[in-house]
Q: What sequence folds into this?
């Protein structure tokens, strides 16, 4: 049984380094996308302070479809280009949104969400798999250090999947 914890009091670079190591440990010997997404969403939700949603949307037949997550029930399908997740998928760039209410076209699955970060998931060949979506009830919860750290954790996830 996995018993790892990451101290949220660490400096962000160290915190995300530890988080990436724990993700690697969780993924050891497992290549199933759903299993690894489920474990990673739980690890993120339980390790990162001030979150109300952490999970995945996978690209399926031209749209994003909800995958494993932690938090309240979510929107099932998101069109490419729509909302923060759709924008990340369309641009293939991480979206850091300090105030979701100021983001044109924001999709509110949980009214408590105030800020959001969405990391596109791409293979080494540049194929879009989906996005990692993390929401917070705190304004401006995510910064550049979070972006860098979560992009590194997302790469660990993408490197493990084979299906």
A:
């Amino acid at each position: 049984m996995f018993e790892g914890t990451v101290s949220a009091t660490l400096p962000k670079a160290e915190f995300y380094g530890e988080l990436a190591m724990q993700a690697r440990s969780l993924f050891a010997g497992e290549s199933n996308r759903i299993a690894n997404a489920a474990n990673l969403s739980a690890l993120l939700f339980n390790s990162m302070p001030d979150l109300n949603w952490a999970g995945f949307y996978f690209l399926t037949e031209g749209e994003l479809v909800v995958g494993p997550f932690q938090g309240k029930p979510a929107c099932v399908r998101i069109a490419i280009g729509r909302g923060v997740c759709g924008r990340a998928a369309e641009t293939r760039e991480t979206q850091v949104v300090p105030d979701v209410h100021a983001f044109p076209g924001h999709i509110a699955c949980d009214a408590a969400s105030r800020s959001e970060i969405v990391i596109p998931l791409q293979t080494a060949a540049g194929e879009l798999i989906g996005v990692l979506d993390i929401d917070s009830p705190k304004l401006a919860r995510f910064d550049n250090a979070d972006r860098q750290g979560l992009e590194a954790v997302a790469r660990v996830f993408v490197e493990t999947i084979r299906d």
Observations:
- The first helix runs from residue 12 to 27.
- The beta strands are 53-60, 63-71, 77-79, 95-97, 115-122, 128-136.
- The first strand starts at residue 53 and ends at 60.
